[in-house]
Amino acid sequence: MAQQPEEQMRAARLVKYKSPYELQSISIPKPGPRDLLFKVGAAGYCHTDYQVWEGVYQSETPMTPSHEPVGTIVSVGPAVDNWQVGDRIGALLFRHACGKCQGCLKTKNEGGRTDLRFCTNVSMAGIKDDGALAEYMIADASNAVKLPDSVTFEQAAPLMCAGATVWGAIKAAELKPGAFVGVIGIGGLGSLAIQFLKALGHPTVAIDRRPEALELAAQVPLKPDLIVDSGSKSACKDITSWADNEGLAAVIVCTDDVPVNEWSLKLLRIHGRCVVVGVPTAPFQFSAFDLIFKELSVVGSLVATVEEAQYLAERAKLFNPARATHNKEHGNPFLSPALQSSDTVYFTVSDSEGNVASFINSNYDGFGTGIIPRGCGFTLQNRGHNFSLDPDHPNKLEPRKRPYHTIIPGMITNLADGSLHSSFGVIGGFMQPQGHMQVLLGLAIARLSPQEALDAPRICVAARMLEERVEDWTVSVEESMPEETIQGLRDLGHQIEIVTGWDRSLFGRGQIISCSLDPVTQIPVWSAGSDPRGDGAAYPAI
């Protein structure tokens, strides 16, 4: 606990509704046992502040406005144990729940703790009580978030209300990955909602009829996929057509324009969700036909919880429109996220008509465009490694060139009629061509079932540099290989290394689907297998 600063501070005060704020000298507030006193570093101003200025909430005057504050703690209440002087803080709107009203009791019974947002007697900074347009401000320690050092006060302040509001709305929309979303009303809230949705990978349409709002939508760092003037006669058709001709999974209404709320339902697909965060003074209007025949949901969203707001603040430090990824090191691919979390996946699927797909996706070494397909959380295949810029090198970089150990999704057809025998793939770096050959031999020569072919022990000739002698190469052998086979390899002069346990992942991971004719009925019979050396499964989808 630090000493209380001087007794007086400057503050912008609302003295009379619809009149200019007055700069006054007032007493610095004294923190209670569970409070934090912080020096304001930045404070935002949102539409609610404008409504307070108009007198919509009948706030008592004089009062200090603003409820989007961030700053640095200068004093900590004696009952606070998770904050200290010097911490960078963002304070949310609500303070000091009574713990006795229906809202407090209900939320504590349901969630295990009191949710300040629903307390009927709660203090609200800048609305019912003094806010942030001052040198110092009080925060409730239970409803504040710690700011990362990399996020400036100017960046963080809008997140404390506008950001937290639309973040809560996005959570309330219950979106599935890749869902199409519309944001109606592109102001402070809407512009942030667009960027949050794009950062989450959602196709997003920005909707407004004001020229300045449409211009703002086109200027935000993470731009929407579509910008639509809601005053256009074809607006609804254009949006529905863009959203796969089904409509939007959700709309987030950030405007107080009442007619927009009814119009927004026409944009939704079946079981779509309209999340309302704009606060008009007039009653809402909705079409019962839209609600019933598409089984739509209309939900309100107040503001994010303190836990959600803390998560938002932590994620904010990762967003930088000037960088494709938060930890990319230019000129050093070995520090790129693609290498740090590189991985490869193989799958094969078939249908009852005999159509089959064999697919490998591999991310390795930060090579390639880094494009993320819509609705997916991974980049497109980028496995292009070990090329050389030396024009005389056998693996020189040139158009349509494939690296020696490239990804190899495979299929086998029957020689007699070209019909499908098997769809298969083995992943694992330099093991891929070796694994494919060994699995293929098991299927075609040893007549093993898909699972038997994958279970069979493998060998791997370790990758070496061209200048190394072949005699120095090591042959890795899986521990379940028969002893006579191992000894036979040694007799041929190979250096043998027995690989056991988890290290057996060296031998790759594969999946197989095979098709054969029943010898009696001549009906195609499908069989499949999944490699025990890694995650995977083989199952029918009926």
What secondary-structure arrangement, pairings included, does this model have?
Elements: E1 8-13, E2 22-27, E3 35-44, H1 47-54, E4 68-76, E5 88-91, E6 94-95, H2 102-111, E7 123-124, E8 136-140, E9 144-146, H3 153-156, H4 162-172, E10 181-184, H5 188-199, E11 204-208, H6 211-219, E12 226-229, H7 235-242, E13 248-253, H8 258-265, E14 268-276, H9 288-293, E15 297-300, H10 306-316, H11 337-340, E16 343-350, E17 356-363, E18 410-413, E19 420-427, H12 431-444, H13 450-455, E20 459-461, E21 474-478, H14 483-491, E22 495-499, E23 509-517, E24 524-530
Parallel strand pairs: 10-11, 10-13, 11-12, 13-14, 14-15, 21-22
Antiparallel strand pairs: 1-2, 3-4, 3-8, 4-5, 5-9, 6-7, 16-17, 18-19, 19-23, 20-21, 23-24
InterPro entries: ADH-like_N (IPR013154), ER (IPR020843), GGT-like_enzyme (IPR052896), GGT_ssub_C (IPR043137), GroES-like_sf (IPR011032), NAD(P)-bd_dom_sf (IPR036291), Ntn_hydrolases_N (IPR029055)
GO molecular function: oxidoreductase activity
Pfam family, one: ADH_N
The count of β-strands is 24
> What sort of overall outline do the alpha carbons produce when their principal axes are compared?
elongated
Class from secondary-structure proportions: alpha/beta
Unreliable spans: none
CATH class of the largest domain: Alpha Beta
- Our Rg estimate from Cα atoms comes to 31 Å
Give the helix tally.
14
- Beta fraction: 25-35%
Q: What is the CATH third-level topology name of the largest domain?
A: Glutamine Phosphoribosylpyrophosphate, subunit 1, domain 1
**Count of domain modules:** 3
> How can the largest sheet be summarized?
6 strands, parallel
Give the termini distance in whole angstroms: 65 Å
Instruction: Name the CATH architecture of the largest domain.
Output: 4-Layer Sandwich
Q: Tell me roughly what share of residues is in helical segments.
A: 10-25%
Question: What oligomeric assembly is this protein in?
Answer: single chain
Mean pLDDT: 86
- Strands of the biggest beta sheet: in what spatial order? 12-11-10-13-14-15
